[in-house]
């Protein structure tokens, strides 16, 4: 390969790496699942963030059952930053019908926070998770998000 081609390749690789770089915190593997939480809050976008999770071999978080939620709540309770984290659960389409964005399967067990979901101002079609449970929230807010990846 000519030196110029090699240099060009290097430049492309470096730029791609820098642009695609997202820092994650890792939770312990649970029942064959690995969980990644983005470290920095940024404007959320279901398609974009799910695409990033897919790039890591997974998808935005979905909850299969109560024990998965209990484990996550426990792990989140041990983290310093306890602000809510975006999941891949949404009711975009039919209000109140919550499903997993990645594969369109119905959302499993949702332990809602008190008086949630309330679709506040008719504008809350995404779902976040915190130690206190789930809350419906605006899909375009600023926040962290969680990926789930088969371990
Ligand atoms: C739910 O989320 C909204 C913002 O989307 C927030 O204003 C509200 O305080 C949250 N409620 C609970 C119980 O966490």
Automatic annotation (TrEMBL):
Q: Is Signal among this UniProt entry's keywords? A: yes
- What residue range is the signal peptide? 1-20
Taxonomic lineage is:
Eukaryota, Metazoa, Spiralia, Lophotrochozoa, Mollusca
> Residue ranges of the C-type lectin domain?
30-148
Question: What Pfam families does the record point to?
Answer: Lectin_C
What is the official name of this protein in its record? C-type lectin 2
Q: What are the UniProt keywords, alphabetically?
A: Signal
Q: Which InterPro entries match?
A: C-type_lectin-like, C-type_lectin-like/link_sf, CTDL_fold
Q: Which domain of life is it from?
A: Eukaryota
Specify the species: Plakobranchus ocellatus
